[in-house]
Amino acid sequence: MKPRILIILGSTGSIGRSTLDVVAAHPDRFEVRALAAFSNVDRLVEQYHQFNPKYLCLVDESRSAELAERLKDEPVEILSGENDLIDMAALRGPDMVVNAVVGAAGLKASLRAVEDGKDLALANKESLVAGGPLFPPIVEKTGARILPIDSEHSAIWQVLHCGKKEEIRRLLLTASGGPFRDYPAEKFAEITVEQALDHPTWNMGNKITIDSATLANKGLEVIEAVQLFDVPADKVTVVVHPQSIVHSMVEFVDSSVVAQLSQPDMRLPITYALFWPDRVESAHGRIDWSQMADLTFEDPDFERFPALRLAIEAARAGGTMPAVFNAANEAAVAAFLDHDIRFTEISETIRRVIEASTSIGQPSLDDILEADREARRLAKQTMETIAL
Ligand SMILES: NC(=O)c1ccc[n+]([C@@H]2O[C@H](COP(=O)([O-])OP(=O)(O)OC[C@H]3O[C@@H](n4cnc5c(N)ncnc54)[C@H](OP(=O)(O)O)[C@@H]3O)[C@@H](O)[C@H]2O)c1
User: Fold this and answer.
1) pLDDT given for residue 203 in this prediction
2) CB of 205 shorter than 6 A to ligand 1
3) Percent of the chain with pLDDT over 90
4) Whose CA is nearest to atom 31 of ligand 1?
5) Closest-CA residue to 54 (of 69, 70, 37, 75)
6) DSSP 77
7) Residue 150 CB less than 6 A away from ligand 1
8) I need a surface site. Which of 49, 52, 94, 360 has the fewest CB within 10 A?
9) Domain 153-381: CATH architecture, name and number where available
10) How far is the CA of 137 from the centre of ligand 1 (A)?
11) Domain ranges for the chain
């Protein structure tokens, strides 16, 4: 069987490294042609020596000279800057782009990959959240496929083989509830960065870990599900399931609920996307049923986690509003990680930015990029007035 040729964007991050773990476990099935990161030279050099890609890209141009110097005797082309990363997504030869970049910074590369007709294995949910309306016409024209890596969307994708689209009553997106599921409301304003980075079930990059603590991540996933599965926001229900064993479910019109279960291990949905339409032998995420205790489910608390409600409202509004939600959230999370605002001010910033914004229906890429820029400007202004 011919190996699948891969481009991996965001290879130095949590998902990027898990993707390379899967590739390393199946050396005859994949060739890594290109790797890209933001600025992590050490890890990219290490990955180069293990996987020997023909191209490497660093978005941070101030670090690419160091990368080039360290690999000057190697047969590798060093690219640098945002435009090179986007062009990398359309390299001649590879079959699949894995986009594991964090944030809306991944949007243009996702678009470039599908415009080029490549399969897009997508962890970068912000691409679809911000640019969702742009993808369907491109995908229809080029035949590209978007293969979700997010575990919830992978679960739904797998489960949807059990029924037709018109037989879906609702998608049930599960959420662990994050580290503050049982935390008293009056203590939320004092939550520290360190507490928020300590996720109970998943080990992830900083931005998504904070998003999981505020439940903004689940909100982003609601929007992602609306885009990926072409269902209205009202057909997506969030269910808190602290054990993170049921990765999501679909309720069909006959009231049957079909779920996908495994231990929480991102290598499982990554493997499913990389090998799709096949399943391969793999032990990642295997459940030991003798050790399985309770599986519990509860409603989310929209009072303590307003970011989730704001995201659902943005999903309902559509147009550029999800891009506004996403950009305000990215700006606020970065400020929280820099200790500039309190935990509760993340959702407060998003709320104020959304209230000050209007949505443009059927947006162009320029409309989306402008909405993103303006939301970041408004978020900065808002945070200056509420900052610690
Ligand atoms: N981690 C998970 O378990 C998980 C699960 C589901 C979905 N996701 C989604 O997957 C994506 C990646 O998450 P992660 O946890 O892997 O993040 P992460 O560990 O922070 O890694 C982010 C990657 O993106 C690169 N990067 C950062 N800023 C960039 C920019 N402006 N342009 C290009 N590359 C940039 C980073 O490079 P440097 O290392 O050089 O900074 C790194 O390779 C996110 O969209 C997240 O929501 C993650």
Assistant:
1) 81
2) yes
3) 96
4) 105
5) 75
6) E
7) yes
8) 49
9) Orthogonal Bundle (1.10)
10) 26
11) 4-148, 153-381
